[in-house]
Fold this sequence. Notes:
Elements: H1 13-18, E1 35-36, E2 41-42, H2 48-52, E3 57-61, H3 64-77, E4 99-102, E5 105-109, H4 114-130, E6 137-146, E7 154-161, E8 168-173, E9 176-181, H5 186-199, E10 204-211, H6 231-243, E11 246-250, H7 253-262, E12 266-276, H8 287-308
Parallel strand pairs: 3-5, 3-6, 6-12, 7-10, 10-11
Antiparallel strand pairs: 1-2, 4-5, 6-11, 7-12, 8-9
Helix pairs in contact: 3-8, 4-7, 5-8
Bound molecules: 1,4-anhydro-D-erythro-pent-1-enitol (R2B) and uracil.
Amino acid sequence: xxxxxxxxxxxxxxxxxxxxxxxxxxxxxxxxxxxxxxxxxxxxxxxxxxxxxxxxxxxxxxxxxxxxxxxxxxxxxxxxxxxxxxxxxxxxxxxxxxxxxxxxxxxxxxxxxxxxxxxxxxxxxxxxxxxxxxxxxxxxxxxxxxxxxxxxxxxxxxxxxxxxxxxxxxxxxxxxxxxxxxxxxxxxxxxxxxxxxxxxxxxxxxxxxxxxxxxxxxxxxxxxxxxxxxxxxxxxxxxxxxxxxxxxxxxxxxxxxxxxxxxxxxxxxxxxxxxxxxxxxxxxxxxxxxxxxxxxxxxxxxxxxxxxxxxxxxxxxxxxxx
Length: 322
Ligand code: R2B
Ligand code: URA
């Protein structure tokens, strides 16, 4: 058996190295400098280990405003010093993405759709790697269309699936299609479900999430500028999706899951449903209700983070009475 040596942090060094954020690119090590162009950050211009080395949770979501609001919310929840209204955008040198660091939490916007989130993920994973981060958990917090669920339900993704309900992501590399698996972390998903039952604030389910490359035709909407199918055909597709375990539809989960899985990063996708797609396509819910819905994944993830950081008492283990 391998003798276990403990380093100054009290962890087994082999385990410590295993938990470091890794990239899967042999060329990176040969580069003298790495410019993270869309973040306006770089290995020569910024001290990434000093700026980001303590990150333990990365939360990503589509909208820059929502991710700023999340950063302010988590600042308040963690009771951190300083004024939460003064949290500034780390990526202020660019308007491609916004990034806020609040203690061990990084909150980043990714825009809409697979190409936008994929650029952000490449640079974010490299950032965590260059900063020597270890033992990091990633969350995508988003909105979605529900399939057979009441609006406002939070869906924790079991499998991120494509338009044919397959748990895979197709990436074109040098003109060839490469298929990557979209396995997410079951343990984190179950912990999140447990958090929801502790909060008792809103309905939460675990289900499959379908990721599409478009909001309109790709999600079977009848209300786009183009539509070539009938209401019956739309409903037949959504019913098949439901039979395949799909409970919500959004536009980033497969590439998020695939890239995290390849880099051995623990990840989860948590999206609130804004409508039930079996009932319609237009989002008619009043603005203030939508704002509250969009806070639900944030509340859930904040609870998870607080538990992990020891802010909340862990419920006592069940004991059997004799
Ligand atoms: C959910 O909402 C956006 C489209 O409105 C998209 O980014 C997604 O995944
Ligand atoms: N986001 C989506 O991608 N689809 C919806 O129906 C709602 C939000």
